[in-house]
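Appendix B: complex inputs.
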Amino acid sequence: MTALLVLMHAGTMTAATAPPLPDLARLRRTRLDRLQSEMRRQEVDVAVLLHPPHITYATGFVPEAVDASQLLYHRPVAIVPAEGAPRLHVHEPTGEPNDLDAIIGSALWPELDEGVDALVGAIHAAVGDLDGRRVAVDAITGAMARADVFAGAELHDATRILGPARLCKTEDEIACIEHAQIINERAMEVARRRCVSGARRSEVAGAFLAELRRLGAHHNEIDPIFQVMPRRLADAVTTDKGAVAFPTGIEDPVFAEGDLVWVDAGHGYEGYASDFGRTWIVGRDPDDAEQQAFLEWLHVMDETVAAVRPGATLGDVGRAAIAANGGDPPWLPHFYVAHAVGLDSAEMPMVGSDLGEEFDDGFVLAEGMILVLEPVIWHDGVASYRAEEIVVVTDDGCRMLTGHPGYAPYERPAATGTTP
Amino acid sequence: MNSPTLLQARRDRVLSAMADADLDVLVLGRQDDANFASGMHRLWTAGTRPFGAGCIVVRSTGRTHVLSSWDAGLPATMSPDDLYPSTWNPRVMAGHMSSVPGLAEARRIGVDEVSPSFARAAARIAPDAEVVAADDVMARARRHKSPEEIELIRRACAVAWAGIDAYLDEPGIGVAGVVEAIAAAGVTIPSSAPLIRPLPDHHHLDIGVMVDGYEGGVGDGFVKGTRLDRHDLWKACAPGATHADLAGAAVGDWLVRGLGMGYERPVLSGAIGHHETLEAGMVLSVRDGEQRDVVAVTDAGPQRLSTHP
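Resulting structure:
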């Protein structure tokens, strides 16, 4: 909320154009209801959750965005019965209002052998004996396995419960993603101005991360990517499938004038991920070939967006992208042309992944699903363009959640297509 | 990137811990374990992920295999043949894993986190194998640090100080300015959430960073730019020190835990770690109240790595 106010004061948007804020109490209540109704539908008695997006979905608690090793030891644990209040054990409280009436327990240490007894006690306090019960789990630490914590229970993969519940986003989940994106785009405008000849990647990343903080955001989820792309595939690190390797995320180059920089970053708002993707050119405007690649990208994006509506399959969306690109798939073959975001930065559905055409043709889009479209145009030896846009499936088509800052330094011709 | 000598030494430690635990293969899902065993440099993402086979160590061949579609970030101790490409498709993944030499014949496969779906996949790929928890095997391999690792940790602590110094020079920069100062030192990966807390009579700062895979950090109360440095818990971190020794030396709420390629074992606090004993070669994050130090436990006594550079 703070961040949005900052944006409005900064004059980038007015109250009239700013999207509505999520109703967080309603968000938390709806998620828990969905999760528990999915549990009852699948006849699961209890879910013991260690995966952060699952914990957020069940309880509203958003674990800090820190190194995985830290979070492994200071793991929050949620124990969710099929009916009634969840139980939440945390190391560092976030101060969220407890409007789900969750039972808040003391810190657990499921990573350590010595911590298992307390975990077993917490499960027992929440739901009683597990013997013969159907229990959904998402991770079993070595300590939990050695102590056979789930002995006698029938184990169920928690992803099969959380997955369906998370697929179609509620109004409030969409509002979270949209706000995460607005903040991300705003911080990237600051970073772009710093991405000049002689600047180092880490400086540009630092400008972005610092601006996120100034906007009140503290949940950066990925070391931000500013990767200098070679013009020729022959000069690039390539994948096993012969495409350009991206995002490698390992170099700290000094930028030079004319560098093509593919940018990719994401941070979370209430745990919901944004996904910023753009191509920048260091120190100058695009030349004709670069602008042409961008225009082709716009065409692919417009045509692909036009295929996104309820009832369409993932296969339909993928084919629209391929047709718009003259018959060739316009994406990196180790990825996809689209993925969703939510409490994970890449989640289902995915379009054009190596799950295959049959999978894509069997998956039907429905209202509330999110797609992050990320086509890539590559003219070998000349120019490339990659950017990302987020759409949400509506009752009769889709709506863009991205694009507030445009495509600088590229210029979009006036009044074409559906992208903003 | 870490030196080939260090990478080789780490791999040897993993192989030796595997031999001690009678493991033929280790399948590692955790980023820090995979990084420790392989040295493959990859994109950092925050938070934990569901278990997936990110790295496979085979004892019979002595090879480390890593999930990657490209060889950017490949250390000198690995060959491009040691990579298996990423995929969204579990069947394709099973195929990639089957082609790792030595995996199909494995009798005992260790995993650093247990996942029912991996156990099912393993039953097809290595039908004779028993899948066992091996987080403790990796913890043993990571327990003692070499002098080179200690220097990397000291260097990471110095980067944390770059953020603290920038704040002490100009507290108005806030957490944003601290993040930017650390980035100016070339580092954009935090180990813990930066803590910048202006209080009525002092400032409480605690910064943790990851530099070339190793963690560094420091925390304390500061008055007029000077570190308070009031507590002596770190001085109790000598070889042989027990939970009772540390509890007796601590003044406030305390936490002593392993520090290396991130957060490691042992973990001791008021609530946990009652049976742990400190050993020479450990490096620890030692927090007592607001004060946090990084300390190497040596035969000559505790050595602070988090002093101002």
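Chain A has two domains: 24-166, 171-400.
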